Fold this protein.
Amino acid sequence: QILVGNRLCKNSGGTFVICHLQPMVLKLISISQLSNILNITPTRQEAIDFVMMEILQRDISSSDS
């Protein structure tokens, strides 16, 4: 379900971030190499900051075009 959410979010031009994962969940994601696909942050605030940076980068890229 996380991968579906990630894909749907990207398809609509959004940014999907998961945060504050329990250690065992983070280990499972790492072992399955999903950490290469998903945006993962340790805290909620870092997730918010990540999304804001993505929005700024998109705005800059679209204004350059």
Observations:
- The chain has a mean pLDDT of 95.
